[in-house]
Amino acid sequence: MPLEGQRKYVRFDPTINTGTIAQIVVILASAIAIYTSMREDQVKTKADLETVKATAITERSQTKEALADLKADVKELQKSTNEVKESLAILRGRAQDNGSRK
Length: 102
What we know:
Blueprint: H1 18-101
């Protein structure tokens, strides 16, 4: 319940005092600090991203080399498997020839 002569509405004092100036300084300083911190984080993130990209390129080339080596090994194994199959076929043929002569 308002007293006599007082209004119901909130009324602000328009004068500027030391507290107002201190608040403005603190708000500006914190805004500058936040912006600076954000920029540092962006720079660090960009540097980390470049490091990751360089690592990915290196690992990709190593993977390609390893894959090429594996392909060569598989071809070599296929050749040796084919040679074993041919040798086995020759031996089977010889065994059948020797069996029919008896």
